Amino acid sequence: MKRLLLRVVPLLALALPVQAAVAAPAGLPPYASAYQPQGTDERGLWMLADEDERTLRDSKFLLNDPVLQAYVGGVLCRAVGDDRCRGVRIYLVGVASFNANMAPNGTMQVWSGLLLRVRSEAELAAVLGHEFAHFELRHSLAGFRQRRTATDIAVWAAFLGQYAPAIQQGAIGSIFQFSREQEKQADLLSLKYAMQSPYSAQAASHIWRRLMEEADATALGRKQRSQRYDRVAFFSTHPTNLERASYLSTLSADVAVKPEEEERYASALGRWLPEFLSDQLKLNDFGGTEYLLSSLAGEHWTAPLLFARAELYRQRGNPRDLVAAADFYRSAIGADPDLAEAWRGLGLCLMRNREQGAGAEALQNYIRLRPQAADISMLHAMIGE
């Protein structure tokens, strides 16, 4: 038994990486283009990624917009450099959560929920740079090998009797600790990209602070306890948002401030904003969505944002919510009188509040603007025509 323990302990040391200190970024490492997978493990990972990419290309969730895709690709190239971005294939995916990921074969997914939540090209560049850093550092391969080592240790530890639970717990915990260290490494390399890009390096920390505020708003809306950001959970694959915001803010504090390009980003996203907002409303997250809409609006509520806020209140459907929703619909119509869906929502709210005459008039405006809409027959019946 002691002999077997002597064999397992060195392996456990490999599976449990020492936590690295967060150091200020230096220069970028040299980059080798046209990289090919090396060894059986990496070739296998690339083969699986290639198959996933074939499936992704036919997915109904893809956003088929070459202009937006080219725009996001341009942000990536300005963030990491033309030599690095040249081999990346970007796919925009219609999923309302904040996420992006990059496969070891150069496939990058960017979800619509992320595009909705970032405020500028600089913030988008920070996230894209983070994902590219995982790719450049070959984190998929390193993570696969570490998980294999850790699970092997956990299996063999079953033969160690009283030592088994502690060793197994340490081995499994090392998987999540290793993932957190990889995330930190990707953050730091992404910060190096930002420092040598035309974008502000301070933008990265802004994202994580707003995500904490949104999560708190979600918890408050659902009458739940807010998350803890001052300590990391055993099974967490990422550092806490507070930790990431803190070290990214500290390391970028003395870096020269550069443009964030908020207006250019808002213009690029404009065509898709109503659809992204509609997807967000389907999450049934009143508190988080209310926070997100207010954050997007700032001091200027546009017609799409006012309409989305009206829909949010109408869908919750409390009597006082219908009054507030009607006011938001009217404000949206004031900003854009041809916003047909706002007339429809206003009409439904007023009908629900037993304001039949005003509701019928609003619905008639919708019918005038959308004469071929699928719900015309139902609305004619509602207004007694």
Word description of this protein:
By secondary structure, this protein is mostly helical. A 3-stranded mixed sheet has the order 1-3-2, sandwiched between helices. The chain has 18 helices and 3 strands. The protein has helices at 2-15, 39-57, 66-80, 82-85, 112-117, 121-136, 139-156, 164-195, 203-221, 241-252, 262-269, 273-281, 286-297, 303-316, 319-335, 340-352, 356-369, 376-382; strands spanning 89-93, 100-102, 107-111.
Helices, strands, pairings?
Elements: H1 2-15, H2 39-57, H3 66-80, H4 82-85, E1 89-93, E2 100-102, E3 107-111, H5 112-117, H6 121-136, H7 139-156, H8 164-195, H9 203-221, H10 241-252, H11 262-269, H12 273-281, H13 286-297, H14 303-316, H15 319-335, H16 340-352, H17 356-369, H18 376-382
Parallel strand pairs: 1-3
Antiparallel strand pairs: 2-3
Number of helices: 18
Let me know the average pLDDT: 88
Number of domains: 2
Main sheet strand line-up:
1-3-2
* Terminus-to-terminus distance: 87 Å
State the oligomer.
Answer: single chain
Order of helices and strands: HHHHEEEHHHHHHHHHHHHHH
Largest sheet: 3 strands, mixed
Beta-strand share of residues? under 5%
Give the class from helix and strand content and strand pairing: mainly alpha
pLDDT < 50 stretches: 4-9
Q: Compute the number of strand runs.
A: 3
Q: What general form does the structure show?
A: elongated
Gyration radius, in Å: 25 Å
What share of the residues lie within helices? 55-70%
Give a quick rundown of the structure.
The protein has helices at 2-15, 39-57, 66-80, 82-85, 112-117, 121-136, 139-156, 164-195, 203-221, 241-252, 262-269, 273-281, 286-297, 303-316, 319-335, 340-352, 356-369, 376-382, and strands spanning 89-93, 100-102, 107-111.
